Amino acid sequence: AAPDSVAAASTPAAPDSVAAEATAAAPDSAAVEAPTTAASGGETSTAIVTQSSQDDLEAENAKNEFIQRLTVENSELENRLAYLEKEIDALEAKNAELEKTVADLSPQNLILRNENELLKERLNFSDQLLHKLADQPKR
Length: 139
Fold this sequence. Notes:
It contains 4 helices and no strands. By secondary structure, the chain is mostly helical. Helix 1 runs antiparallel to helix 2 (about 15-25), helix 2 (about 15-25) crosses helix 3 (about 25-35) and helix 3 (about 25-35) packs across helix 4 (about 40-135). About 5% of the residues are buried.
């Protein structure tokens, strides 16, 4: 069977040949829209099979693109996760260091607080003595 465009070119312009030219010029849409306008039944089934094959190919390409996008996104997410895990490890190490520092400072803080309290008591005692001495008559 000759292609639709060759058959249309060799015959005068008739309604069937115009439809055949449209089918040959735009195979992705015309083959499905006008399958009954082709010259013979064999050409009609070929056009439908060609359209089905093209649809299958487009679906397969879309599926492959989707899989590739998912693979790239998965890789990016894995990289981000690895980065965040390193950040967590660094923060946990910093936290451990700070906890040790706080643990070391707590006893020192208690000691300094007690010393401060003792110094305040001595200062109050000294003030009381000075006031008593000041209140005594001079000799």
